[in-house]
Amino acid sequence: MRALQLLADRKLSIVDVPMAAEPGPAEVRVKIGAVALNHIDVWGWRGMAFAKRKLPLTVGAEAAGTIEKIGADVEGLKVGQTVAIYGAETCGTCPACHAGRDNLCENVAGVRGFHVDGLACDYVTLKARHVVPAPEGVSVQAAACTPITFGTVQHMLFDNAKLEAGQTILIQAGGSGIGTAAIQLAKAVGATVITTVGSDDKGEKARALGADHVINYREERFEGVVRKLTKKRGVDVVFEHVGVDTWAGSVFSLKRGGTLVTCGSTTGISAEINLFQLYQQQLRLIGSFGCRIENIAQSLAKIAAGVVKPVIDSTVPFENIDEALDRIEQRQVFGKIIVTL
Ligand SMILES: [Zn+2]
Q1: 188 in the same domain as 98
Q2: Contact, 110 vs 90, CB < 8 A?
Q3: Does residue 24 sit within a domain?
Q4: What is the distance between the alpha carbons of residues 263 and 272, in angstroms, rounded to a whole number?
Q5: Which pLDDT tens digit goes with each residue over 207-225?
Q6: How far is the CA of 98 from the centre of ligand 1 (A)?
Q7: How far is the CA of 91 from the centre of ligand 1 (A)?
Q8: Which end of the chain, N or C, is more open, meaning fewer C-beta atoms within 10 Å of its C-beta?
Q9: How far is the CA of 45 from the centre of ligand 1 (A)?
C-alpha cells in the first residue's frame, strides 16, 4: 500500500510500504478516505527539535475513512461504515483513559503522524476504541475535520472554558481551521463572537460564518477594539492558539474572572505574564491539548444535525501536500485543507 512519509525535514515522499496488519481481536482496519492538515503537520514537516520521533515517519494526524475489516471481539461497528480516527495512540487502560480523558493518558505513545506513524496511507489498523462512527449523511471529508479540529475546539470551549449562551468570546485567528470551527460552535450555543483576522477578505468570510464583530489585526489593535465593543468590561472567554504575538492583548481582553483557553502557539512559545493582573482580576488560564474521544462524537453529531459545517479551503491530492503545507505556514488558507488518497 501507499504511505506518505517524511524522510527528512521538509522532504515528503509517497512510499510503498507493507499492507497494514490484520486486525487483532479488539482492532479494526480502516481504509483512509481523507486527511485534514493542521499546524502540527507543518511543525512535523519543518522539523521540531523537541519532538521525539524516528524517520521515516508516515504523516497525517487527522483523518477519516471506512471500516474495511473488524476484529473478532469488536462490537457496534460494521464494514463500510464511515469513521473518524482519534489522533493519539492512547493506552485505554490507565485511570485517565478509563475516565474518558484519553488526552491525559499516562502511557500515551504519541500523536499520530507526529511522534508515531500517522494516517496518510491507504490502510491503518488500530484499536476499535479509537474510531468514532459518523452518523448517516456525514461525508468522509467532513468526518476528517472532527478528530483534531472540531474535537479540540469542542473540548476547549465547553469542557474547559464552559462557554454559555449570552457570553462574549474573543476568537483569535478566526480564519484558521480551528478558528472557523470555534466561530460556528460558539454561535451555535448563543454566544456573541468577536474574532480577529489578517485580511478584509478573511473578515468577510468570518462574518458569513456568523461572527458578530471582526477585527483586522493588521489595521487595528484588537485589544482596544475589544474594550470598546464590551464597554470596557472585557470578554468572558478568549480562545487562544496564536501565542506570543497576541498573548498580552488576549489577557488584557478578559473581563474580571474571565477565562482564557489556549491550545497553540504558532507565533512562538514564550510570553510574559503579569501576576498582579492574574490574581487581582481573578483570571483563569487553561491549557488544552487534543480532546476526549467523546468530543469527536459530539462534533460529528453537530455536523450531522447541520448545526456546524466544516469549512474546506481546498481539497488536494496526495502529491501536492508540500504546496498545501506551505500555504498553511504562510496563512494563505481559510478553513481546512483536505488531502485525498
Ligand atoms: Zn491511557
Answers
A1: no
A2: no
A3: yes
A4: 17
A5: 999 999 999 999 999 999 9
A6: 7
A7: 4
A8: N
A9: 27
